[in-house]
Every structure is written in structure tokens, then in C-alpha cells.
């Protein structure tokens, strides 16, 4: 009987090992979408150095996001930038209709000859984040000097996001100057307040397109790029954002008995809010590959994964805890698996020997596409339901995660094919954008929304936007222009 039992266990183990091995070997990259005919990017007669000099000029306009409507000097910088665009790209401005929306945002419509074809919407933003005075000494150049140095364009906005904006204008001017006309309409939407949320720019431009009945083939914005060293593979990978996380901040408020600390009650406002924060922070949040771009990313990069990683991903039912443990050690990887919770602020009391009557804490949520703000609030309230005097609510209306765009669409196939042409050593994979972009406002006017800059960035480069010594190499800027020319030519041109 014992031998029979042991034999059965051995057979079961062998079958299980065989099943795991089969799933591992069959876990391969999906077949690429239908072939897309594109031109060789190297064939375009682009003068990258001259284009880089124009990007440097664009950086010299201090188009810092306007936090006040009364900032006349700041507004003038945007208006000067607008005049520069018109002067620098005359063929495009002669071909496209220009509209000023929300005060300073620019909506261009380059009409196509076939109105039956849905348009393409291409996004970039004019505004940049400020450079704090106490950080300027750590810049190697003046952040608004727009210097060309070490084969790169230096300055605030070089990557985020004047590089994209000027590359789009360069590509459109290149085609318009040749007398080319699109078959399908191309819309360019250049917001002026993306860094503040896009309420006066992207929101209004998207609303205008919706009112006109526009249903675009796709929207393309910034958000992700090609990484020179992907954390899972150690090799290059071009990441196309197909969704972005939402965000919201919960306010946890506790009311207690005020008085002197020499005679405290069993719970104080501070202890109550501390317990509440701890419970909410430890809420069980589902962490898994499904329900977002993570599994698609893993599958697309399967040929580059180590055998152990591929086995774990292909058999998440068996190795899920181990896989999650490994990914949770990396903050960026952990964010792909589910919603993240980060207590960020706590306030209560004015003196160490005085019991405050109330205390407040703030907890920031970055919402995964699998979750909703309403459900997270319901669960947080349930977690503290037995704490008398504690209330939980969103401090401001939260932003839901965006929908997940298709990776089997013709538009994704076009973007992927162009990326492979520009960056042949970087396999293409879908990704989740961890920050926010203007593109989320265009979901109702497009079949799919994608977020991708065709540039190759190192880990060090990723720290430059909003940071120090932001710069874009001339080689990367050249890639962007060629990518956008190819996009317009293959996706829209006659």
C-alpha cells in the first residue's frame, strides 16, 4: 500500500512537472499583429542637427504651467512660443487650421481628403514644470538656455514634453513642405496645463472634438518610452502604454476628547487616526498579473525572460506568491500588480502635553485599472468601521484609472511596426503608465489611446523629467521625428 501510494505521488509529481514545463515552453510572445507597410525611416532626409537647434530655441520659452490667471508675464511666454511656431513651421501652418482653446492650448486640424476615414489625434503639451531656485546650482546648464552640448539638447522640457511637440511639428512641416496632404485627417492637440491636470487645455479640446462628433482611429501621447535595460530582462524593450493608473487621496479624520495628557482617555484622536491609517495601509489589495497590462507585457517579453521567470509567469497559479514576492521588491514592478497605498501626511495637536480634539491623515492611492475609487473607499470605511470617531472620505474627487487599449488593433500594429523600424533591438511590449497624461481625457473620442515616445532611455535618463539636467540626445530627437513622419505617412498620407 505504501509503495502504491508513493508510486502515485511520484506519478502525480511527474505529471505536474510535465504540465508546468509544457506551460512554460508554450508561454511565448503572441503573434505580431497584421503586417503594416511602412517606409524605411533612414530614407527620410531629416537634418537632425538643424532640428535640434530649433528644439533648443523652443526650450528658451519659459512656458511654465500657469497657476494663476493673473500671471501676465507667464502668459506672454506662451504667446511668444505660439508666434515662434507659426514663424518656424510655415508650411504646416498654411496647411492646417489653428484654433486657440482654453486660452492658450492649440488645436490644429490638418484636413484629410477622405472624410470617411477616422482621424488620428497626436498629443503633446507646451507647459513645463518649474525649476526650484534651490536646485538651479545643481544644473550643469541654465535650465532655460536651450543649450546644445554633448550631442544633446539641454533644458527643462527637452523630454517632457517639448521634444515631442517640436518633433511633431518637424514631421508635419517635412511633409507639408513637399505638398503632401493626408488622406485621413490628423489632429494635433497641444495642451498648456498638462502638468496641472489639463482641465483648461486637454479637457476642453477633447470636449470640442466630442461635440464635433470626432471618433478617432487612435490617440498617441507621451507616457512611456523604450528602455535601454528593462528591469525584467536586462535588455532593451519598447514600452507602449495602453493604460494609466488613476489617483486619489483619502482623508482620515479622527475626533477625540480634548484635554491634558496627564489624564488621557483610552484612545486619543492621534491614536485613533494612527490605528485607522495602519488598517487602511494594510488592506488586502489584489496583486496579480491579470486585469491590466502586466500579463501582456510579460508575454510580449517572454523570449527575453530567464527560464525561471518565464516558468513563474506561465504558471502563476503555482508560483504566484513567489512571483509577487520578487516583484514587490521593486517599487515599479509592484505598481504593475495592483493599486498602491501610501500614507503621506498626518497632523494633530499643537503641544506635546495637550490632547487634541481632532487629528487628520492623508493616504495617497494610485489606482490600478482593476480597481475603482468607489470600491477602495468602501473597503477603507469597512476597515475602520469599529473605530468610534473616525471618518474616511476622498479629500478631492479621485481620478479613475484609464481603460485598457487593445494590443491587437491595427493602430497598435502601426505604432509597434514603426517602433521596431526606429529601434530594431527593442522588442515591443504593452505597459502601464504610472503617472498621468493628457491622453486620459480623450478616451471618449478615440477607439484606442496609446502613450509612447520613440526614444531610448537609460535608468539615469528616466530621472531627468521634473528633475535635474533634463536633456534629449540629438539621436533620440532624430528618432522621434522619423517615427512621426512614418506615422503620418503610413497612417494618413496619400
Structural features, described:
The protein is of the alpha/beta class and 494 residues long. The protein has two domains: 41-242 and 402-491, Zn peptidases (Aminopeptidase), CATH 3.40.630; 245-394, Alpha-Beta Plaits (2-Layer Sandwich), CATH 3.30.70.360. It has 14 helices and 19 strands. The strands form five sheets. A six-stranded mixed beta sheet has the order 1-2-6-3-7-17. A four-stranded mixed beta sheet has the order 16-9-8-18. Strands 12-14-10-15 form a four-stranded antiparallel beta sheet, covered by helices on one side. The longest helix is centred in the first third of the chain and has 25 residues, at 2-26. It is globular. The model has no long low-confidence stretch (mean pLDDT 90).
Short description:
35% of the residues lie in helices and 19% in strands. With 494 residues, it is an alpha/beta fold. It has 2 domains: 292 residues, 3-Layer(aba) Sandwich (Aminopeptidase); 150 residues, Alpha-Beta Plaits (2-Layer Sandwich).
Chart the SSEs and their pairings.
Elements: H1 2-26, H2 48-59, H3 72-88, H4 90-95, E1 97-101, E2 105-110, E3 120-125, E4 147-149, E5 152-154, H5 162-176, E6 186-191, H6 202-211, E7 218-221, E8 226-227, E9 237-244, E10 246-255, E11 259-260, H7 269-281, H8 294-300, H9 307-314, H10 316-328, H11 331-337, E12 340-347, E13 354-355, E14 358-367, H12 373-383, E15 390-394, H13 410-422, E16 428-433, E17 449-451, E18 456-457, E19 471-473, H14 474-491
Parallel strand pairs: 3-6, 3-7, 7-17, 8-18, 9-16
Antiparallel strand pairs: 1-2, 2-6, 4-5, 5-19, 8-9, 10-14, 10-15, 11-13, 12-14
Helix pairs in contact: 1-9, 2-5, 2-14, 5-14, 9-10, 13-14
